[in-house]
Amino acid sequence: MTFKGLTPIVYGGCEVWPLVEGGKGVSATNHASSGAWAAAGGIGTVSAVNADSYDAEGKIIPQVYNAMTRRERHEELIRYGIDGAVEQVKRAYDIASGKGAININVLWEMGGAQQILEGVLEKTRGLVAGVTCGAGMPYKLSEIAARFGVYYLPIVSSARAFRALWKRAYSKVPEWLGAVVYEDPWLAGGHNGLSNAEDPLKPEDPYPRVKALRETMRAEGVSEEVPIVMAGGVWFLREWENWIDNPELGKIAFQYGTRPLLTQESPIPQTWKDHLRTLEPGDVLLHRFSPTGFYSSAVRNPFLRMLEARSERQVPYSKVQAGEHTVQLDVGVRGKNFWVAPRDLERARNWAAQGFTEGLRTPDDTIVFVSPEERGTIQQDQKDCMGCLSHCGFSSWKDHDDYTTGRLADPRSFCIQKTLQDIAHGGDVDQNLMFAGHAAYRFKQDPFYSNNFTPSVKELVDRILTGD
Predict the structure, then answer these.
(1) Which class in CATH covers the domain with range 9-283+440-465?
(2) Model confidence over 84-123: pLDDT tens digits?
(3) What is the dihedral angle through the alpha carbons of 37, 264, 49, 169, rounded to the nearest 10 degrees?
(4) ∠ CA 48-27-42 to the nearest 5 degrees?
(5) Domain with CATH 3.20.20.70 in the chain
(6) Residue 139, pLDDT score
(7) Residue 467 and residue 416: Cα distance in Å, rounded?
(8) pTM beyond 0.70
């Protein structure tokens, strides 16, 4: 039995359920989950962010970087990215067997995004229906999609962001706008589009924001056939009953990022799946440690707590004696040109006494205190950078022009490629970044998952279609 008012939409030339699988970053969504989602009649989304490739025996090829320089490793990363995503799309398409649709998801802020997107679309003609893209302002997305004859689905968190994209670029190719994804910046997992004008601690109701998005789309002459995809915090469709068939909002679809993590086809390791069942409300933290500079949401595990604690161990300094900076720092740094406030000198001495004996400068004129072991890991990770982002705060890499952001590398951040590859391929769930949406605590509460039940993707989609 289908939830009342929910009807199929036409997408990619065929009828599909208005249910979209969220395309989750590095290897958390792959061909198995996306192909199954499409086979169940929805829109499956293959993550084209450093996707896995396979050898002749079907084993995952580890992404090892052999080049000496960052620029050369960046070229290796682009090759891995194209090969992996092409393999994932082909496998997903085979699993879908002509049902539903297959999209790919890219982050505009990933290193070599345009090159990878063009490389994948070139080699998967006729297999991909559309491209979802967020994390930045992907102005070139529409032009690339039109060139390859696929839909583009920008991910935005406000009507204002969509209007800027439309005015500058998308209005030139309106016929390929497949949908607009509204991603709730307070509820979605992964990187979020919170602007500086919005308070991370004061969530806003998505309804008026999506209503404003539709009003903007109408004012710009966007076809009523273009759906808005609600993403972030979606669990039971019955909780969104007043959104379905609502003339104010127009055509609506729903994106599921967190729920598909706990399915039989989900590629994440069993330890990650098991951990999802233990989460309580508030266990997912909206934070700003990501080297992208964006806010993002992840499980507040020991890895995230370590980053929180590290950031608390910092003091502002100046290179000359000025203002309240009247005393010289005598722990953690070499040289005498570090002037701090007297109270901060005491704090620094206390941290050094606890074993945090190494002071590292940050781009914000502060010194953060870490253990010798932490310092070694931070510096090695920065040295091993393979340019996985277009701009990286952690390593100061930039994927164009002179290949540097020109800013000091930030030791308060982390290598996102290293940790996401590690957790997706069986690494310690306590010592890596574990992305999840803020509704992840509902796995523990939802009777569907009781007695350790793990549904297949088909069983999950069928369940969602009932309203639960």
Answers:
(1) alpha beta
(2) 999 999 999 999 999 999 999 999 989 899 999 999 999 9
(3) 20
(4) 70
(5) 9-283+440-465
(6) 87
(7) 36
(8) yes
